Amino acid sequence: MSKLKNSIFEGAATALITPFKNGSIDYDSLKALIEDQIKGGIDALVIAGTTGEAATLDHEEHCELLKKSVEYVAGRVPVIAGTGSNDTAYGIELSQYACQVGCDALLLVTPYYNKATPKGLIESFLATAEATDKPIILYNVPARTGVNITLPVYKELAKHERIVAVKEASGNLSSIAELFAECGDAFDIYSGNDDQIVPIMSLGGKGVISVFSGILPRETHDLCAACLAGDFKTGAEMQLKYLKLMNALFCEVNPIPVKAASALLGLCGEEIRLPLCQMEDANLQKLKAVMAEYRLLK
Fold first, then answer.
1. Are 90 and 98 in contact (CB under 8 A)?
2. CA distance linking residue 176 with residue 181, whole number of Å
3. Is 139 part of the annotated catalytic residue set?
4. pTM of the model
5. pLDDT tens for residues 108-133?
6. Is 97 among the residues known to form the active site?
């Protein structure tokens, strides 16, 4: 396949947290978070993804979050809307709304819980692509969804003009290498794991959709920029320098630690929605200690 599709972004995109206050979305903090990210040199923002607790947003909240985020960003970086669902019809409704309010692209997670067959995955993603007019990033995260996008499924989906990229969070570098070999000229491939940015970019990846950049956007941008420039030595040095902090942000299930870290930095409140809950105190103390090592906390 020859590559004819335009890239949504190159570099680092932050999977942004959704700040809450008294049970509602805290839009003042959201605006401040977006400004902090753009000031920090981030290349794109993902709104209402896994890290944004999309699974606990009701329909009105999800739509308003996307709309206001587009308004706050005001065209300065691409806004990628998390609109995947285990109900394809509902996912299409959300995706169409995201297109209408000016989101630049859609991030579609594999339908979770249903455990769709390969044929079902293909039909679901293609149905969304046909019903919308913005570029689509497929999101493969089998540890959360219970379903892995296999190479034959990727090859079929690569034929669609609006399915332009993949966020690969399977963690399986061997499978990801096969994806590059078979579909690397048809998809942009982004790392979905912060600890695999350099390996994936060394194979030809265009960047990362990151949790770590929620705390350090400039450093994540610079790491990706080094790799995009072919300076993998510098990229590797940065990857290893920040590896301990990257791992600390996953000491409990995402986004619990990154929201706690954001609160510690004064970026937002620590409120999180059930079934997620506040960090265990022992893990919180470990996170604080690691952040202090990186001089993020005194």
1. no
2. 9
3. yes
4. 0.96
5. 999 989 999 999 999 999 999 999 99
6. no
